[in-house]
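INFO batch 0412 | record 1 of 1 | parsing
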Amino acid sequence: MKSSLLARLTLIAATLLPLAVAGAETFAIGVSHKANNLYKIDGKDILIHTRDCDAYGYTGNASLKTSEAGAELLFNDTKEKCEVEGVFDAAKPKKMKYGVTITRVENDWFEVGGSKLFLRTEPRCILMAIKESVTLEVSGDVGGYVIYPNGKKCKVEGIYNRAPM
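INFO prediction complete | emitting tokens
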């Protein structure tokens, strides 16, 4: 991870409680497990995407440690450490329909091709597209629907911006 992620995390840090650490920043946070490798910071519309994290179903106190070398999510109770793939905050796209290509990253976590946007969908979208051209209908402040070419809809629970890496 590059310094751009560190810069983005520093901006997000205003919403977190920092702990004093030389050469790195560590933030005390509460997290809730939302999906495979996806954790939400309690009380904030910020998601943390991890890589191959085994802390399945974990909810509780954690620390987010950032440095020039990358970021780690440390679970206080279990002492487990997970590499952070990215940090995401809520996007507010205009209410309208967009033609997009989505790629499944995790079961209910999709990347929107050609952008820094990611979609968190309801769990039933798990069996749909690995990569597919769809219509993204933004219908509210935080979500909308993915509409597949066959007309089936999948609820989007959140639209997120990825921190630059």
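INFO post-check: The first helix runs from residue 3 to 12.
INFO record closed
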